[in-house]
Every structure is written in structure tokens, then in C-alpha cells.
């Protein structure tokens, strides 16, 4: 019985820790001139997606504004 309780406790602990991970960055909207990237935690996690998006148009991102979970970048010509 103690082994069963230990397994249940470990399973619950794993589920709790899994739920605490920050959301992955994702592009919400974008075009050749701007891109909005949602992120969780650190705005630095939004930069790789912004670079990739702007590179499609041979441009580089410039951070214009940010909130708790959304970063707005302009795509600037090189």
C-alpha cells in the first residue's frame, strides 16, 4: 500500500511541475512590416521568432513595444 501511495505522489508531483513551464513563444500576427510575438517570462524568448519572421522579407526585427506577454517588433530593411 505504501508503494502505491508513493507512486501516486510522484505522479502528482510530475504533473504539477509539468504545468509550471512557461508558454512557448508564438507569432500572433505579422506581415512584412511588423510582427507580434506572444511569450511567457522573458522577452528574449521572442527574439528568435521575430528574427525568423522578418528574415522572410530580408529584414531584421527591432523591438518597438512589449507587455507582460506580448512583444511588438518592426521589421526593418537591412
Keywords summarizing the entry:
single chain; 78 residues; alpha+beta; four-stranded antiparallel sheet; 33% strand; elongated
Write the layout of secondary structure elements.
Layout (H helix, E strand, L loop, with lengths): L1 H18 L6 E5 L3 E5 L8 H9 L3 E8 L3 E8 L1
Briefly summarize what is shown.
By secondary structure, the chain is an alpha+beta fold.
What does this structure look like?
It is a single chain. This protein has 78 residues and is α+β, with helices and mostly antiparallel strands. The protein has one domain. Helix content is 35%, strand content 33%. It has two helices and four strands. The protein has helices at residues 2-19, 47-55, and strands at residues 26-30, 34-38, 59-66, 70-77. The protein is elongated. The mean pLDDT is 85.
The chain-level structural class is alpha+beta
Total number of beta strands: 4
Q: What's the mean pLDDT score?
A: 85
Number of helices: 2
Overall number of structural domains: 1
Strand content: 25-35%
What's the story with the biggest beta sheet?
A: 4 strands, antiparallel
Task: Report the C-alpha radius of gyration, rounded.
Answer: 19 Å
* Strands in their spatial order, largest beta sheet: 1-2-4-3
- Based on the structure, what is the oligomeric state of the protein chains? single chain
Low-confidence stretches: none
The rounded distance between the terminal residues' Cα atoms is: 66 Å
Shape: elongated
- Element string (H = helix, E = strand): HEEHEE
Helicity range of the residues?
A: 25-40%
Amino acid at each position: 500500500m505504501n508503494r502505491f501511495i508513493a507512486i501516486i505522489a510522484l505522479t502528482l508531483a510530475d504533473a504539477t511541475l509539468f504545468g509550471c513551464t512557461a508558454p512557448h513563444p508564438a507569432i500572433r500576427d505579422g506581415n512584412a512590416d511588423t510582427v507580434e510575438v506572444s511569450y511567457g517570462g522573458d522577452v528574449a524568448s521572442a527574439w528568435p521568432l521575430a528574427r525568423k519572421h522578418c528574415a522572410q522579407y530580408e529584414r531584421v526585427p527591432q523591438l518597438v513595444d512589449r507587455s507582460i506577454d506580448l512583444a511588438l517588433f518592426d521589421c526593418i530593411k537591412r
